[in-house]
Amino acid sequence: MTLRLSLANPAQNEELPRVQPWRGLIHGYRRYLPVTDQTPVITLHEGNTPLIPVPAIAREIGRQVQVFVKYDGLNPTGSFKDRGMTMAISKAKEAGAEAVICASTGNTSAAAAAYARRGGMRAFVLIPDGYVALGKLAQALLYGAEVLAIKGNFDRALEIVREMSQNYPVTLVNSVNPYRLEGQKTAAFEVVDVLGDAPDWLCIPVGNAGNISAYWMGFNQYHQEGRSSKLPKMMGFQAAGSAPLVTGEPFKHPETLATAIRIGNPANWHKAIAVRDASQSSFNAVTDEEILHAYRMLASQEGIFCEPASAASVAGLLKVKDQVPEGATVVCVLTGNGLKDPDSAIKFSENNFKQGIEPGLEEVAKAMGF
Ligand SMILES: *Cc1c(COP(=O)(O)O)cnc(C)c1O
């Protein structure tokens, strides 16, 4: 009797959460994407990343403002680039491509390599020599990309791959490839699906401005379908040393420790300006110091480890916090995982790392301050 009850208690079974298997964003958002039954879906089950409340950051702003981070560093290769790459690589495969090429500050090359190799294609990546974070280079190499480091910056690398793709049998998978933005717009869908409406503000780091353009597409598409009641203000943030969309002029020598947004001449310049104007927002610059402050704060007070470029969204929010309306809902996009750039984490942690301690109880207790 007791045995039967414990084995088949219907009330207990109903309480078990039913986990829907997530099979990647092409599967999850198929009806919003330019795919057909003929499209071979090359996926690592990217997307469906968490929207996490960040109360310590919300406290800094006060006035009942709610702040969340969209932690896209939890995608399979550790950045939001996977969203665009599952689409771009699937469509390249559908078109019969045998090789893809991209210029990259690191994350695009990691994602292109992983998806291209999974799809049985070659991946050529051009990177600026000496300006790619260690984790990203490690990924591109192990995933099996053919990595070419050039003595020039990202902007020059992009010019070269654009021409290469016109003259050789290689498909360009930078964010000028329209399928990239189609995939990336799904992050906006996920935000609305979780919040039940669009946020009032979206804060986002801006490099080539593909991602801000993609989010705007996604928010608009959902809004037109009646899935949200409003559109957010699109608050884009650039590093002060490479802020062409803030100053209105390309930067010949972009500089910032946030290497993922070290871009002087954004590929999606006009799209970005159109987004800013349509959402009645503004673009602002944050200094490397402000980026590092947000980077450390996210890790040490919220438990969230992102890469420096990602922290620009939170640094920007803190910078313009007086402009946030009372009670507003704000989402900051964290574009990449902190493990991408271990050198920056160690260099900028400002933590007191005690080394060379004798392996004895007393010595350890003393070092602990007891
Ligand atoms: C690519 C990237 C960005 C910039 O995105 P854009 O679409 O180029 O504006 C920001 N942060 C990280 C971590 C990235 O990899």
From TrEMBL:
Any one Gene Ontology molecular-function term assigned to this protein's record: pyridoxal phosphate binding
Domain Rhodanese span(s) in chain numbering: 100-143
Binding site for pyridoxal 5'-phosphate: 107, 207-211, 335
This protein's pathway: Amino-acid biosynthesis; L-threonine biosynthesis; L-threonine from L-aspartate: step 5/5
First-tier enzyme category under EC: lyase
GO process terms (BP): threonine biosynthetic process
Required cofactor(s): pyridoxal 5'-phosphate
Record Gene3D superfamilies: 3.40.50.1100
Keyword terms, alphabetized: Amino-acid biosynthesis, Lyase, Pyridoxal phosphate, Threonine biosynthesis
Residue numbers of N6-(pyridoxal phosphate)lysine PTMs: 81
Catalytic activities: O-phospho-L-homoserine + H2O = L-threonine + phosphate
EC number in record: 4.2.3.1
Domain of life: Bacteria
InterPro entries: Cys_Synth/Cystath_Beta-Synth, Rhodanese-like_dom, Ser/Thr_deHydtase_PyrdxlP-BS, Thr_synthase-like, Thr_Synthase_bac/arc, TrpB-like_PALP, TrpB-like_PALP_sf
Function: Catalyzes the gamma-elimination of phosphate from L-phosphohomoserine and the beta-addition of water to produce L-threonine.
Family: Belongs to the threonine synthase family.
Protein name (record): Threonine synthase
Biological classification of the source: Bacteria, Bacillati, Cyanobacteriota, Cyanophyceae, Leptolyngbyales
